[in-house]
UniProtKB/TrEMBL annotation, chain A:
Protein name: B9 domain-containing protein 1
A Gene Ontology BP annotation from the UniProt entry: cilium assembly
Family, similarity comment: Belongs to the B9D family.
Localization per record: Cytoplasm, Cytoskeleton, Cilium basal body
Assembly with partners or alone: Part of the tectonic-like complex (also named B9 complex).
The keyword Cytoplasm is assigned to this record: yes
Species assigned in the record: Neolamprologus brichardi (Fairy cichlid)
Annotated InterPro entries: C2_B9-type_dom (IPR010796)
Pfam families assigned: B9-C2 (PF07162)
Organism ancestry: Eukaryota, Metazoa, Chordata, Craniata, Vertebrata
UniProt entry keywords in alphabetical sequence: Cell projection, Cilium biogenesis/degradation, Cytoplasm, Cytoskeleton
Amino acid sequence: MAASNPSVFLLTVNGNIEGANFPEYDNLYCKYCFVYGHDWAPTTGLEEGITQIASKSSQASHRLIWNFPLATTFKSTNPSGWPQLVVSVYGPDVFGNDVVRGYGATHIPFTPGQHTKTIPMFVPEPTWRLQKFTGWLTGRRPEYTDPKVVAQGEGREVTRVHSQGFVSVSFLIMTKDMKKMDYDTGPSGPANKPSATSGWSTEEQP
Amino acid sequence: MEALEDGEEDEREALKRHLRAERQKRKKRLLEQSSLQKSRDADDVKDVTSIQQYSADEGPSEKADDSVVLSKSRTGSQKVLCAPGLTSITQHTHHLDDFVKRRLEEKLKAARSKGESLQDKEASLEFPSRLHSLKDRDTVTRFDREADADRAGRRDSPSPLSTRVRFREAARQVGKGLPTAEEAFNFFTLNFDPDPPDVIETSSRRRQKQRKTTDEDEEHEDVDEDIQEENETQSEEAPLVQTQEDLFVIDQSPQDFLEIKKAEYVGYQKLLQRQSELLFTPSFRTVPTSIKLPENMKPRYLEDEGLYVGERPPVSLTNENILENRILKMEEGKKWFGDDGRIIALPNPIKESSTRPPLFHMEEALDPALQTVYRKAVKSKYANLYIAGGADPEGDYQLDVDVSGLIFSHHPLFSREHVLGARLAQLYDQYLTRQRNNLTGHLTDKLNGLRNALRNMLESHSGLNPTQALQQRISEYNLEVRNTRHLRDSEQEKDRTLLKNIVKVWKAIKALREFQKFTNTPYKLYLRRENVDRVSDEQDYEDEILAEVVELEAETEEEYQNKLAEYKKRLEEWKLCRKKQKAKKKKQKKKKKGQAQDDTEGEDEEQDVSESEGPTDEPPPKPEPPERPDLGSIEQWVREKTLRIRRKPGEAILIPELSASANITASELCPRAETARREDVARRSLFTKILYNDKEVSRTDSRSLNTDFRVHFGQIFNLKIVNCPQSISLQVFEEIGSSCSLLAQVFLPVPEPSVVTGSVPLEEFEFSSNQRVMFDHEGVGSDVPLSFEADGSNKQSLLTSGKVSCCVSWGIGDDDVPLAPPISQQPGGVHSGMGCLDAVSYIGASGLYDMKKIGEWARQSRLDPNDPKNASIMQLLKVASSGEVTAPEYFRLEHLQEEFNFVTDEELEKSGRFRLLKLRNQEVAEFRNYKFIPALEREVTDTVFQEYEKRLKEGEVIDTKEHLDSHRALVAKYLQKIRESVINRFLLAKHHYLLSDLVIEEEIPTIGILGINLFKLAEPKRPLKPQRKERKKVTAQNLSDGDIKLLVNIIRAYDIPVRRLQSNKPGQSSHSALQGSIGLLDQIQVRPFVEVSFQRTVLQTATADGPNPCWNEELQLPFSAPNGDYSTASLQSVKDEVFINIFDEVVHETVMNDKNRGKSIQTHIEKRWLGSVKIPFSTIYSQSKIDGTFKVNTPAVLLGYSKEKSHFTNSGFDILRSLSEGTFITLFITVDPQLVPGESVREKIKEMKFDTQEDERLLQASERFERDAAQRYPERPCITTVIDLSGKTVFITRYIRPLSPPKELLDEFPNNPLEATPLVARFVSLIPSLPDQVSFSATCDLWSTCDQFLTLLAGDEEEHAVLLCNYFLSMGKKAWLIIGTAIPEGPTAYVLTLEQNLYLIWNPSSGQFYGQYDTFCPLQAVGCLVNPDNVWFNIQQYTSPMRVSFDISKAHLWKPFFSRTFSHPGLSSIQPEELVYRRTDRAAAAELQDRIERILKEKIMEWRPRQPTRWNRYCTTTLKQFLPKLELIRGQDVAEGHRHELQSLLGDYRISGFPLNLAFSEIRPIIEAVYSTGIHSVQASNVEFALAVYVHPYPNNVMSVWIYLASLVLT
């Protein structure tokens, strides 16, 4: 490979789906997938994954921990369509039906370094109140036709959602050859300060 | 230590040498030991135990010795460890080593001398080796840990690692001597795994040897532990195996393990197994010490050695075991264990006794230091968020509001005198202010200064010619002088007016007092006279006037000069113009004389010139010379002005002085009205409320109103604030008795943090109220007109107003700290004005971009260039005036657009990469899903665009080869264009989302569904007649190849033609040899089977018997979408068709006579085509299932076959023959899993509101009509508006209009118009069909008019139906368009006619017609009927044509669109008046015929690559003769005759064949059709073929193609 004249740049995403904060629900698992543009392709690592089912500890802490590792490398020629991480959380409802508990998406951070993101999660609302009831009864809540919908802006105006909790993800980002291709993502290197508090540690405080 | 450092190098050398020697020695000793071991074992054990028993009493010296013994065996490995890899750490340790060594040696000596008697022989025998071992680091470590914690801390962490590294290094060194280059590289780069992976064979073997010895040695020490000995060896084995395993792992790189796979199902057992791999449950069992320690190590007990260890924190044994097991599982687990084999632990931190002083007296007085102290609750930090950054919750802020007093400038209770008095006071105030500012004086001084400067300048340069710059300056000075003078004049004038006014008001007061005979106000005005020196004053006066006059004269003169110059210039121009005109006139005259020789060009030029001068022909008006200004009048004007605005020379200066010394008349002396007023005043009192952030925080005391209308409060309020100050305001209330009313509200500014109490003066804030108050006493009231003139004129209305004097400031704390929040919190900083002119208000915000205006403004406002406030503007102006930036003359909305363009448009055009990106964004078909657009320009190859450009070009040039006909080529091109425009529209519509596109949601169960569900509960589980259920639909996006299957269920067929027994004479059956061999002679009429082919997959059913076979077989055909794209749009554009062919299986048996083995029978199976049905995939996709009985397309003549007798009797109307004659097949076709059919674009397009020319009212009505229909009968198609080819919405009735069919068709049957009807239908059906769905990639219905249809010669069912309906109407029939559903087309259009009280249903694309009660009519449902006047919607119970009454006059059966309430608005048709037909072109038809024949012959030969294809010319010519006849009878009636003819001609041949009839559109479908009959697949060796083609031309290039295919086998 001609290192001096790269034709693609690489973006390595390591990290963790650390856990979630869903105050009302328990026994949840999380699916994740990456959504990216035409000019992107994953080179190594898994594009999609599903975590184990996690339940809350009986102690005061209300978080669900997955600590599910993410390790994917993308190559790309064009920053347009920068990959996004789409997470969707599922779990059983009162009747044991597996229902969706939240959708969320976030862009993979641009700058190399460590990042912690807290993704607010939401679910689509039933159109009618009656549907809400029947949905609750039958365990068939409205779902997106494709979880990847939450990573796109088009057509979202027709939906209504309500918020549902948080998923926190930590990223360790490396890039290669971005600078060489004249893409500057701002301050790079270790200068990047890792955010001191992760998503839920702020919530821990009264 | 230092000394040792110096000797370090020597030390190292010595160490190395020593080690080498040691190694040699050790080898020898190992051999010895192994032999000696057994004998020694028993002694050893005794020995050790005895020593340990001593140790408790004997003291440290004993222990040191003992440890030496114990460590002896370990030396083997440890010595090697320190060999060569001397890193910095080891260097460091060497110092320690030496230091420690010395101390140990000393200790050892002491111990030896003391305990010599206790040492046995063996110990002394091994003494030399012990001494050596003392030098080892190992002992050092021990000592180190014990000696001082500081060092231990340093040592502890690195040592295990370095030890390991060194060990490996040593091992390698031993094995190889020198490391290879690769190894060296690895050493520096690789991250070493804990276990040495790449140990070389020899070394590992050696290690094992060593380990063996260790084992034995360890046994000694483990004796005193009560661990089972059996386990020992086993557990020892374990790590060995582990290391072995690790050896293998290392060779593979991490990449080898990465593999991306689909998700797969994992069984429960497997899951458990996997979990067991992932999960680890530590055991409770005690871990043997040997595992916890590195190999070759014996546990050491520091305590036994007499060192203080401390008590470990209590941990239950099980927990400890669990922890140990867990740690051991980890890599590098061993480092957690100390030398004694236990987990390293700090001493227990918990003290035995409590250190806290005891509390004895719980009830009584505690020690004051221990007393609990009550602290008041403090507001949490977060409540303080209002004052952001107010980190200190204690740091409260204090705002002091000082309300001093209130003065009314007008009050309703003012008497007239008060009003005047207030005015006087006001004027006096003004006067005082002016006096203080003394603007006039300043300006006068400035003027004098300027004049002097000007004079000086002129004097100093009087001799010289003034330079440009100087002139500039002089003129500037002049300008300045003029401006200053103007300013001074106006100021002087103001001064004078003010003085006059004061005097005037005072006079009015005096008059009033005199008039009313009492005094209300204490005002008294004195005018002080100040005499001046008359002479000098006059002198000044005159000088001033003179100077001004001179200046003015100069100005006027200059102005005059300017004007004059202007005039002259104009005059010059005028003269020039005149001259030119004269010259031109002359020229023209000359020209008129004629100069024919002149060049035409020249003439043109002349003309151009004259033309261009044309407009200036008119002579401009002669300019008027300017008038000379009258200088005399100037002086007069100046004098007048001066007189007006200034004191006369010599007049005394008047200085007014206002005092409040007048006596107010006592109330008793006043008239009644006045007393009433005064009483009223006395009754009133005032107070103010202080509002902080719109909340009342405090209020002043109520103070009564004084007669002078001043209220003094003099109160200071200290506000402790928590919230950020937003607003502070005072509300002034007036109290009369108990009622109080709000007078006014005064807003006070929030003070700057620097404003603190004590440093600010009181400020006056004006207020006013617009309340209307009137009194019946002397009080003038408020907002009441009031006049001071005698005649009541010049009325004024005064409003209650006044001033509050107060101040707001920040308080000061005890320690002189201002209690103000930090500056940053101050909201809304005070806008500092930009000098005298504010730029924004001057030119407006929008003008800020206009450089010119800014420049203008800057010049006018005379910005101080040195003021830092103006720096940015001056900078801007500098740039602007440098000429770089020229303000454009046009207005632009996005004036910064150019700056935002990151490249110019040209570059964007040139760049291939940008082009690629752009095309992809536009979703151009070729680039829609283009991946990886290269990042760099040079990597974009031109080949990417080639195809696209080719297509663009092809838009203009269409390959004529494919189409055989230039006309069709044009049509194809036109269609292509339409398709593109529709696709573009569709792409637009695709970006329009509905909720159902995004969210899957359960539908609300209605009562009905609930009821059905309840009913279902009672249903039998397995009903006798199962019905097909609706399946769950699958969204197309998560599908891949192989997921979708096409299910074709072939149930049965009717009326399959039967074989005609081969005979020479008709009617007489003879047994042919072939059939006879089967046995069942008469029964075997036909053995049909069905072959289904789809997307290169061919499947067939079993063979059945008889003309009415029943297969009931399901065939599964895989489906793959184009390019693996399973999106809805892509599926909709699938053009593949399902071919269902019925074949007859014919078995030939030939008997082969083999001389050697007797007879053998060879069986040939031949399949003969009987008919076919083809169903496009798009229909299946959009319908999701196709279920029904279809008519099989059978050839008109099937040679060798005949139909069974028709069961149906013909009706009386002879063209009304029952058309159920023919073959039928019952099919069920569906796609598994069920795909969600794409939403038709029609609906989306409707949302997008296509433009239309229809009346809005009509559109609304049609929308309503359709909506009603859809609500009541959702199944029935209802169309009132359609979209024409240009994309406009058109009302459907406009398409229907009587249009005459081609004359030729009518001429065929001049006598019997009824005969012509089927011919017309046939003509229409011969126009090729082209489903919109396929061509437009979506279910988008575009309706073309009949002329467009005939030009395009392609259209779908609707166009056919419209044309046919129009023809029928013109032929005088009653005809309607039926909008309904049919199989297999789905929603479609048919034509209904009424003939002799019978309704006929015409299928426009096949030309067939059916009676209303025909069971095989493909039309399944009737939605609505359309004729030129109206649309009727079917509101009957049934939709099937058989059960529907077509009587449209009945309103309860058919709901009309236009009714009495909404009458037909007289819509004109969009169809042309008349259709123009091109005449039939027989020559072209003949040419086409030849070409088709040639191509087909080539193709058939191509399809038979193995066998020779022989053509029977004789047969071909015979067949050729039949074809025109077939066309004549429209293939409907098979003439028995021609077969006999053929039979007689061919005699010995067994012939099978059939004619195909097709509408001509392209050559490809013809080839397909021929191929699908499979006639080429006859394998018999002696087969011959016959192929005849006939093209029958119809008007307007409509062609009917007949192909006769036959295979002949010689019997």
